[in-house]
Amino acid sequence: MKKAPEHIAARVTLIITAWLMCFLPNVAHAKPSISIKHSVYSISGRTSYDLRAQMNKAGPGADGITGGYARTKWDVKWRYGLTQISGGCRVNNVTTSVHVTYTMPHWKNSADGSPDLRGKWERFVKVLQIHEDGHKDHGVHAAQEIEAGIAQLQPSRSCNDMQRTADATAESILEKYRKKDLYYDILTIHGATQGAVF
To answer: For the CA atoms of the chain, what is the radius of gyration?
Structure first.
């Protein structure tokens, strides 16, 4: 069997890829607006033991429900218009927004710590932020998927039906990403497997 010339094979691959993309959610083009807020809780100490004890006492995990030395909350909102068409109603102008709040520890008397302890702390906080960024990404991806998912809905018989379908679609996607957030913390032990250990 003859091998197809490289330029023809490349063209066929490109056509197949483009064809497959027609059946995938257009998430890449969804661009939610993102707002980020940084919050801290203060701790003090001169040893690793002191700082861990302070984080356990004052940090987000002190509620006894969820663990971890930091917390990231995200909230997704969506908006769209409804347009009457012949025989039904469709959505238009879909937009989403994400509000992210980080809560991180702040070592307020770090100047009193040894150079080694300060270096250890800086490395810890850096990796902890990387872990928390994973939570933020879940919120952003949820918004992107909601925007794309609602925009691609087929028209409904009435605008009331269309609204119910759009909102149910969004809520289903939100629930999926809330579970991802939960499993992410379980799998990483709140960032410990990523190196966020102090």
So the answer is: 23
Strands 33-43 and 88-107: parallel
Q: Beta strand 88-107 with 71-85: parallel, antiparallel or unpaired? A: antiparallel
128, 196 in Cβ contact below 8 A? yes
Residue 6 three-state SS: helix
Q: Could you tell me if 148 and 30 are in contact, meaning their C-beta atoms sit under 8 angstroms apart?
A: yes
**Maximum distance among all Cα pairs of the chain, rounded to whole angstroms:** 75
Burial of 110-141, coded b for 16+ CB within 10 Å and e otherwise, reads: beebeeebeebbeebbebbbebbebbbbbbbb
- pTM score, whole prediction: 0.81
Instruction: Give per-residue pLDDT as tens, 99-148.
Output: 999 999 999 999 999 999 999 999 999 999 999 999 999 999 999 999 99
Is the CB of residue 12 less than 8 Å from the CB of residue 4? yes
State the DSSP string of 169-191: HHHHHHHHHHHHHHHHHHHHTTT
Q: Which of 177, 183, 190, 187 is nearest to 130 (CA)?
A: 190
Question: Which two structure tokens, joined as six digits, stand for 33?
Answer: 């607006």
Query: Is 176 in contact with 146 (CB distance < 8 Å)?
Result: no
**Facing residues of 160 across strands?**
none
What DSSP state is assigned to residue 156? B
